[in-house]
Amino acid sequence: MTSFAADYSGAVVQPSPNHGERAGGRQPDMIILHYTGMGSPDGALDWLCRAESQVSSHYFVHEDGRVLQLVPEARRAWHAGKGSWRKQEDINSQSIGIEIANAGHPGGLPHFPAAQIDAVIALCLDCGNRWSIASERVLGHSDVAPIRKVDPGERFPWARLHAEGVGHWVEPTPISGGRFFQMGDSGQPVEALQSMLSLYGYSTEINGDFSAAMAGDVEAFQRHFRQERVDGIADFSTIDTLHRLLRALPHFA
Question: Contact at 8 Å (CB) between 100 and 35?
């Protein structure tokens, strides 16, 4: 495929060869946000459009707000890799992937320019409306692939997106003292927390043991929903924020 008509009217087409069929004829019901994690936006874009990279995304958002479409939305872009959300594992077949030009953790977590976030919001609203994507299914790469991925990072302004109608959010519970759970802990309270994480969507195993994998899930949750401190320790702030997010889900109302 050398060219195609843009699905989003605000995008300029720059085709990537890296895509395939969505498995089972699926339609996208998730949006996954990434940062590029490279110092050069042009270098990141070039990599996404090279056949040998075997990676791509549907959209690429420059720092100044310019939006490029690399893969048609009807096709399966190769952006998420191995991951899971609500027990579904082929994330690429059911999602729209958006790469946001930002150096990320390797570059010291630079802030995202306002023009870029404005463009991301407009793009997500357009995709979400056209595909009827639920707000709680606008996620970060780190949500669907904890430990393995950390993007778009703890400086990504999820609260601002939510204020404009994109994504699921509650104001995080302030950090304070009190009981907490961490690696090595076990028992029924840990199992209850695992159940809450799993119910929200994370691939947390429910066994009552606070393992390294569970710490990774807690970290991923904090990176999205309680960004002030990302340490993998389930303190009251983390647990209460998770509880309020669950209560705010439409099917829990």
Answer: yes
Q: State yes or no: cis peptide before 17, omega within 30 of 0.
A: no
Listed in order, strand segments (DSSP E) in 65-144 are 67-69, 76-77, 95-100, 138-140
Can 63 be counted among the known catalytic residues? no
What is the pTM for the complete model shown? 0.97
Choice among 99, 136, 154, 219 that is catalytic: 99
Q: Is 239 exposed, middle or buried (0-12, 13-18, 19+ CB in 10 A)?
A: buried
Pairing of strands 67-69, 59-61: antiparallel
Dist. CA 185–CA 74, nearest whole Å: 45
Residues 225 and 245: their CA atoms lie apart, in Å, by 9
Over the stretch 109-125, which tens digit does the pLDDT of each residue have? 999 999 999 999 999 99
